[in-house]
Amino acid sequence: MPLVTTKVMFEKSMNEGFAIGAFNVNNMEIIQGIVDAASKQNSPVILQASSGAIKYARPIYLKKMIEAAVEETNIPIALHLDHGPDFETCMACIDGGFTSVMIDGSKYSFEENIALTKKVVDYAHERGVVVEAELGQLAGIEDDVNVSESDAKYTDPDQAKEFVERTGCDSLAIAIGTSHGAYKFKGEAKLRFDILAKIKEKIPNTPIVLHGASTVIPELVEMCNNYGGNIPGAKGVPDEILQEASRSGVSKINVDTDLRLAMTGSIRKVFSQDPGAFDPRKYLKPARDLITETVEHKIRDVFGSSNKA
Prior knowledge:
Elements: H1 6-16, E1 20-24, H2 28-41, E2 45-50, H3 51-57, H4 59-72, E3 77-84, H5 87-95, E4 100-103, H6 110-126, E5 130-135, E6 139-142, E7 145-147, H7 157-167, E8 171-174, E9 179-180, H8 193-202, E10 208-210, H9 218-226, H10 239-247, E11 250-255, H11 257-273, H12 280-303
Parallel strand pairs: 1-2, 1-11, 2-3, 3-4, 4-5, 5-8, 6-9, 8-10, 10-11
Antiparallel strand pairs: 6-7
Helix pairs in contact: 2-4, 2-12, 5-6, 6-7, 7-8, 9-11, 10-12, 11-12
């Protein structure tokens, strides 16, 4: 099965009330771990790369590794650009074989965001590629995205309707209280499901995306800290809240931090228990296995996309 766009995936998710996991990739082990999990669960999956990941892995390596994953499996896989910062980056990914791109114009004014998004949509649609846009701003830090709490803004439902109508974007990332990075909440985690409901009412046929939605799994944080890490007070979006989001009309949920924690915790554990280890296979294989376990849990227990391939 070749790489697919997210269009059919999202139609099914909206009709059947589940979400599709969009997992950030940086290297071979992460790609293998995610795809192994999705294959075991017979789930569609979105592999997404930020501009930072593309620079790190190099475009041709990243694309060839994902092509290998597609060749090895029979599940629907989409290749998505996460947080495209500008038209040029989106254009390069569209021309380079990505089936979906995100243009993040959320830092601009409403009109500037519309103009930039429309430019990307026009270019992408001519080439059969779908576009995710963002309205509202999430707090937190991830790769090139850095927004303070004071600058974070919830998505306005009326603006969301106008934005989708004027840009023709295929899906919309909204801000309802999630944030990027490992330190999402100081107090109790809470998402504005009332805003989500109003947005769904205004744009019922537009797939909704949640960014900054890692659980920051406590066991993984504990593993990192127990084996020499220093990640105090990390806190994410609890599984039960993400389960509710999956059932309430969110079609795509992004996960990055949890994969980083799984990989780092696993590698720290090997080095701590075996200081003489220097064969990369000895510490990268357990890291890959823990990523598979983590992604399987998300697909099966949180997003509800098992057997939806």
